[in-house]
Amino acid sequence: MKILAIESSCDETAAAVVENGRKVLSSVIASQVSEHIIYGGVVPEIASRRHAEAISGVVGQALSQANLTLADIDAVAVTYGPGLIGALLVGVNYAKSLAYASGLPLIPVHHLRSHIAANYLCHEDLEPPFFCLVVSGGHSHLVKVNSYTDYEIIGKTRDDAAGEALDKAARSMGLPYPGGLNLDKIAKDGNPKAYRFPHPRVDGSPFDFSFSGLKTSVINTIHNAKQKGEEINIPDLGASFMNAVVDCLCSNTEKAAEQFGFHKIVLAGGVSANSVLRRRMNEICKKHGWSLYMPELSLCGDNAAMVGAQGYYEYLSGNTAELSLNAYAGLSIDESPRNK
Ligand code: KG4
Ligand code: ZN
Ligand 1: which residues within 6 Å by Cβ? Predict the structure, then answer.
């Protein structure tokens, strides 16, 4: 089964053709990073406009790179949430038009489910059940993936997502957007023990995260140093902060996997590209004898191939949508896509 997939939840306009949920026949990503860089973050209105301009060319390119036409496609999958509502609506409306014009089934795909499914594209042996840490710009979840379409949230952030905290801290250090990626780069030259940060815990919810205090702590460190006229070593500060964020992510994942008896751990989302997180999770899994699956770096960030992968499993579960499908800025991973 060949699925044409579309992703436009944030600042990448992407389309791909994926066969049977596992084989990428083409994948095209038009990034808007250069447009948003001067604002230090994604400007939603600009994102929507750029998606509208790019989508038809990106979809056309995905078909031509796969040497296919719409007549060869069996279904259209699209990210319908969560994300920036104006941005999502561009992809959803384009997918609906394609499905209407061609008579193909329309498959709604949850953004975080698709991030998890990125792993199916690079690990052919990976099948649920497994335990997953999903860390992106907007979300930080610990999830039991019971089947390809059945999820249970075990822990989540009470405030900022890990990526959001990394982005905001990077910005306060004067690093350009996208902050997480640039922080990862400069931290390679830094000493992770140079600055001490709190390791926040959420009372009564051992698997939840809280990153806003950590982020404020970085901002305060910078302000205090400025007021005293002291130099801040940015690589050291970046490395120390990143280390603190990764510590929280890893310790909750380890505790939860032990408690729930999972020996198969999966990382997903933009932050799963982080070099320290990948190394540390590797060490933890080795220590326990658990298997660890991480997306290839090219599949960590937003792309449409992962939407095609998850779309296949949603289709097999009967999760197709009517042409009345809407987009949702907020949407829980455990919510059924039916009747949307
Ligand atoms: O999944 P994603 O591409 O978009 C969302 O769904 O939000 O994740 C984007 C997030 C951003 O916060 C970005 O700074 C972060 O992923 N990110 C990284 C790295 N690459 C991207 N964070 C840490 N280290 C990286 N190497
Ligand atoms: Zn994402």
Answer: 10, 115, 136-138, 163, 166-167, 178-181, 184, 269-271, 273-274, 301-302
pLDDT in tens, 46-55: 999 999 999 9
> From the alpha carbon of 83, which atom of ligand 1 is closest?
6
Half-sphere exposure of residue 57, counting CA atoms within 13 Å on the CB side? 8
CB 230 within 8 A of CB 96: no
Give the closest residue (by CA) to ligand 1 atom 16. 270
The C-alpha atoms of residue 182 and residue 197 are separated, in whole angstroms, by: 20
pLDDT tens per residue across span 275-296: 999 999 999 999 999 999 999 9
What ligand is nearest to the CA atom of residue 301? 1
Q: 2-116+299-339 and 126-297: same fold? A: yes
Q: Residue 311's Cα: distance from chain center in Å?
A: 16
- At 314, is the secondary structure helix, strand, or coil? helix
* For residue 153, pLDDT beyond 90: yes
**Ligand 1 atom at minimal distance to the Cα of residue 273:** 26
Question: Looking up tokens 């090219």, which residue turns up?
Answer: 298
Which residue(s) pair with 134 in the sheet?
A: 141, 268
Q: Write down the architecture of domain 126-297 according to CATH.
A: 2-Layer Sandwich (3.30)
Centroid of ligand 1 to alpha carbon of 89 (angstroms)? 22
pTM recorded for the entire structure: 0.97
CATH architecture of 2-116+299-339: 2-Layer Sandwich (3.30)
Domain residue ranges in the chain: 2-116+299-339, 126-297
